[in-house]
Design a protein that fits this description.
By secondary structure, this protein is mainly alpha-helical. Helices cover 82% and strands 0% of the residues. It has helices at 4-28, 38-63, 69-94, 100-124. The protein is elongated and about 50 Å long.
Amino acid sequence: MILAKPVAVYLKLVGAAVVINLCAYPFYGPHQPDDLDVWSILNWFMAAAMLAALVTTWQRRSAAGAHDRNARGMFIFAAAVAIPFVPNWFADIVDGSDSLIMWYLIDSAMPILLWMEGHRLWKAS
């Protein structure tokens, strides 16, 4: 993959941003201006990173042999994070009926996925 290093850097940066914002949000969230919601902006970057992770894990899974459990496991992990992310994100965009508990689960699992896939892409290129 010719863009492996830039994609790896993007995945790691988004993963780090999610962790930092998740840890910092309790401190600045109540004092945040109404016209600036950091999560609403970060969700767009998370969606792009999630799509990149799904594509790269699918490519690796397709290229790997049938018995490569690691490639298959990473794709399943990416899909398992994407499945709750997409409807929760759309619910947040449409009418704000998203689940805060789902966000905590997503925001805990997605950085792990992004960091692992980013690390793999960096080493593979």
